[in-house]
Amino acid sequence: PSFWAMDARRSIKVKSGSSRFEYPPAALDYGVSGTAFLVVRFDRSGKIVDAVVEQVNLGVVDTESRMTVWRDVLGKSVLRGVRHVQVEVPDGLFAAGEQTQVARLPVKFSIDTRGDVPYGKWVAYVPGPRAAVPWPDAQGLTASAPDALLPDMLQTNDARTRRMRDAPSR
User: What integer pLDDT is reported at residue 19 of this predicted model?
Assistant: First the structure.
């Protein structure tokens, strides 16, 4: 794996809409947690114009068929919520003539009230299958697995990872 320094001047944050990621009631009732990794396309204004669920990792073990159902439930929830998300785009992110950018956005669903796991501590999860992203300009972004991306990070197509403020994590 590779790690790059984050340039605070080029950080991307959610400007609005992150509260629209709703924990699906069925998943909440059954104590299902997980992280859905979206690949999104956003325009110069920060509007997300398209999204694909690339992978959903679960924090619970169940039968294969039920884990497939839970991945689908969490994935559909983030696709509904991402329509209302607006990102704040820093100056200089888009090249001349470039109208859209692609990025990977993780959305975490957790009922753990203890907060985030401290850095350096292992978190067990069941990785989900990866879906192909149909956009040719996302190939560089999706060449690596999303698993190590933290819920408050947004990875853009230039292979850099940027911290998001006001991250859409629950």
Answer: 60
Among 4, 2, 1, which Cα is nearest to 163's?
Answer: 4
The pTM for the full model equals 0.79
Residue 70 tokens, joined: 């839970």
The values of phi and psi at residue 135, to 5°, are: -95, 120
Give the dihedral of Cα atoms 152, 158, 159, 163; nearest 10 deg: -20
For residue range 59-84, list pLDDT tens digits in order. 999 999 999 999 999 999 999 989 88
- Residue 168: pLDDT over 50: no
Placement of tokens 């209302």 in the chain: 84
Q: What is the pLDDT of residues 105-141, one digit of tens each?
A: 888 898 876 666 676 777 788 999 999 998 888 887 7
Classify residue 147 by burial, with Cβ atoms within 10 Å: 0-12, 13-18, 19+: middle
Q: What is the 3-state secondary structure (H, E, C) of the chain?
A: CCCCCCCHHHCCEEEECHHHCCCCHHHHHCCCCEEEEEEEEEECCCEEEEEEEEEEEECCCCCHHHHHHHHHHHHHHHHHHHCCCEEECCCCCCCCCCCEEEEEEEEEECCCCCCCCCCCCCCCCECCCCCCCCCHHHHHHHCCCCCCCCCCEEEECCCCEEECCCCCCC
